[in-house]
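Entry 14: structure prediction run for Zn(2)-C6 fungal-type domain-containing protein. Input pasted below.
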Amino acid sequence: MVYNGPSRGCHMCRKRRIKCDETKPACNRCIKSGRNCPGFRQELGLVSHMEIAAELKTARYATKDTIIPSTLRPPFEDQAACYFMSNFVLNPTLGGAPGFMNFLTLLRTMNHVPKHFEYAFDACTLAFLNNREDSRNIFEKEALGKYAKALSATFSALRDPELAKQDVTLASVLLLGLFEQIAPTSMSWSALGSHIEGAYHLAMTRGDEQLRTNIGLEMFISVRSRMIIVNLLSSKHLALDVDWQINDMVDRDPTFKVQQLSLMVGELRSEANRLLTNSTHSSVHVNKVFDLLRRCQAHEVVCENWARTLPEIYQFKLAAWEDNVPNGDYTKAEVYPGRVDAYQSLSVVHMWNIVRCARLALASIIVRCAAWKSAPIDYRKTEEYSASVRTCSAIITDIIASVPYQLGWFSKRQDLLHEKGKFSTFECGEDNVQKGLGGYMATMPLVCVVMQDYTTTVQRIWAHGRLHHIGSHLGIRSSHSFAQLNVRMPSMLICRNGIIASPCPPITDIDQLLTT
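Run finished. Output tokens:
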């Protein structure tokens, strides 16, 4: 191939290693892909580079002994970093949809990168590279070694009051939490939960100052998002004002509104756990339960109406209707028979599914309150239960319809995405392929689907299959352990409330308890 000098393309196209159409002032390739075109190199610089290249070419031909180098391969740490960034560092969209972990790009370019951040980043990147289907776990030992060093170095950094407030320290804790989802060190929730709780306490100590920089604001949003996961998927509750440091942002940014609505559900569930496990049926206590029920129903209306105020970029559209299950095997089916929806980015579908999971948790509280006040009558005969069945069935259908977009189903069906959705734009690499971030974001809604009483048997089988697919093909191995959960909501919580309120001999087999 003839060398015609350095590329005259824009900086973004050269970074992505694609051909630029060189339209000025902004190239059409960047505009079509939703990126900001940073401009072009100066012509003078191009001329000088071409002259130097010509001189080097002449010198090479003048050399008597020509040496042909062997194929060059970058160090596996660099491969791991590039692979990780192309799967997890999501760029924000022009319309305002947030990105994911963009702060890593800036923190890695610091003049002095602290060891605890370096170890935590390397641990995540090596673990994710190790989880590739063809890796044969060759990087597992290196990843665990980096993780152990990151834990020790981060613990030392947290003991320094000044260092503990720096961006790199909070970023390190967030990376440690992500490592526990990529390559969990235990089958329990404790390790991941402890990292998220640690990030929450760090964010508390950083105060309002963290919101004054782009990096601080992005990490603050990330901490709140992880807190919501803790609230929705476990009994762990982190007491926090739902309007903490975001009073003036809720009306301007849908991301903060979603977090506010979801954290309010966590507050309501914490209150329900206190009230519904109390055997007292005094008039005061009954009034508190009725008041909680009314507030939950009112919040459900607010959550349901939330979507009507969203800008166009946050809306989703029907892209396809599938009814084929290959070989009748739902565990391997990419799509559950029915709707397939398209979204504008992974952050948008994640926002929708957070609200959907919050509404499922809210419906569970409502049914628990109805069961408490109607006992000993079967709660499944109450109006609240009938309404929850309709609401939750529709929400489960919406979640299932969103999963193919998250898991890259459209990468081989780009014609279906035209004018109905877009691929998310990542820091590097190709955008129209399966991404680890999609699996990471799809895990929580799939777990919520699996746990619901209202999920059909076939839907649950399909959701289990998608969780195992995420663990085996998208590098999020914690999804394997989530797929093993054998929990049903709200029936198990109602049963537990009955046991606590009316003590009886312990029964260790919960399945036997539910069938009697």
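Notes: Residues 43-73, 503-516 have pLDDT under 50 and may be disordered. Will compare against the previous run tomorrow.
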